Amino acid sequence: MSTQSVQSRLRGLLRPSVWEIEAQPGTQSYLHGLRGVLALSSLLWIFFQTFVPSVVSHSTAGPTYQKVIRIVFSPVLWNESLISSFFFALSARAICVRFLNEPKSVAYAGSIIRRIIRMSIAVALASGIASGIFKGLGTSYVHTFKQVLPNNSIVAPDTPNNALTALNAMFDLFWVVRSYFYQAANDFWPSQTIWSLSLIYQQSWTIYFLMLILPYTRASWHWQFIAMFAFGSFWMNSWGWYDASALLLADYVINPKLRVRLDEGLSITKEWKLPLALPGAAMMIAGLAMKYMWTAFPRYMDAELVLHPYLDLAENTTRAQFAAADPYPRLDNYLVIFGALLMVETTPQIKKLLSARWLVALGRRSLSLFVAQSIVFWTAGIMLFLHLHGHGASTAIANLAVFVTCSLATFLFGEVYYRAVDVPSQWIASQAYSWLLR
To answer: For the segment 193-252, what is each residue's pLDDT rounded down to a tens digit?
Structure first.
């Protein structure tokens, strides 16, 4: 290999945007900006969940002021269910873009194959890194931390018995279709949140099935077809109604005939049309009202399951069993997420705000930050807290030091992971698919 070729490759390493599969035609930067907002919200959640649990969970006792903070701010700023569901909806909104812009077999196959390769590399390596770290460090310090703080709402990660167990756990990330909470990889992951990536991956197949139909059918019938599918999914309370709604929104944004209707708004009379940002705002307000209600009265958290008739007709499960078995698509999250997306897609000012370069950059690194925050806060963060607390620092001072130090460390770790793993995984996926076409 020539010196010039080596230099060219090294320059490519310093310019990861050259490799980014996400930077494809038709992918809007404001959606990355929205991911950036969620990445910041996720950082707040993991800090509070680990170090100030009473502002996240009603099941952990704490001072009255922390309870007030939880009720006032957590539904909007650091709600785990909303964050994970929002990432799910944004993934469904994004993966169909390339094919809907260019409805050809090459684009369709490429969307599937690249995603399989990219996620297999990035997510499996993340799981392997976390398992290796906790295998080396052990988890005794986590048990000590739970008693010192105290925090009974977190669970110390398990560690694989051997390399084969770890490999099987990474493999199963892409094969489980139920009991996402209880898979081995989730037990090995600090904060037990890697289940969300399994869910995103598995549910992407619903999008791949539905999107194939749209370019070859009447545009005016798309919403009826997708609405029927969404209704069936809602009846069963599967994630399909989230998928269908995200796909329909993408279709209206991309299809020129439907985009006109999106811009014109909702027809009330021949002369009067209502901008769709207003129904979107109404959806958000309704969803947030529900979230505040469940936060103030957590015993009714799963009361919305009464809206899904399948759960009353099925003989193999009850509502309580269904709620405990798996993450399920919540109505309050749905209203907030798709109300917000409807406002974003129809309001240029919001798009411009979300297209800020720093937010877009954070959004492109959202997977890397997800990986980094769990590992950093559950290793360096907990150890730093124990060290400071052992030397007489108050809980508040120790928490402040942990938040500042670990937030900076998370961004640094995330950037390293982004450049060393995430971006190369996208490049490998692109090259692998190009090789298959030869």
So the answer is: 999 999 999 999 999 999 999 999 999 899 999 999 999 999 999 999 999 999 999 999
Q: Which two tokens stand for residue 90?
A: 């944004």
Q: Say if 127 falls within a structural domain.
A: yes
CA distances (Å), 57 to each of 80, 268, 335, 413, in order?
Answer: 10, 43, 22, 27
Residue span of the structural domain in which 70 resides: 21-252+327-334+356-437
Number of compact structural domains in the chain = 1
- Residue 338 scores a pLDDT above 90: yes
In terms of pTM, does the model score above 0.90? yes
The answer as to whether 279 is a domain residue is no
Total count of residues recorded for the chain: 438
d(CA 17, CA 97) in angstroms, rounded, equals 19
Across 134-159, b (16+ Cβ under 10 Å) vs e yields bbeeebebbeebbeebebeebebbbb
Q: What are phi and psi of 267, to 5 degrees?
A: -75, 120
Buried b or exposed e, range 395-431, using 16+ CB within 10 angstroms:
eeebbebbbeebbebbbebbbebbbebbbbbbbbbbe
Question: Residues 287-337: pLDDT tens digits?
Answer: 999 999 999 999 999 999 999 988 888 767 888 888 888 899 999 999 999
For residue 351, count CB atoms less than 10 angstroms from its CB and return exposed for 0-12, middle for 13-18, buried for 19 or more: middle
Percent of the chain with pLDDT over 70: 94
Q: How far, in Å, CA of 393 to CA of 404, rounded?
A: 16
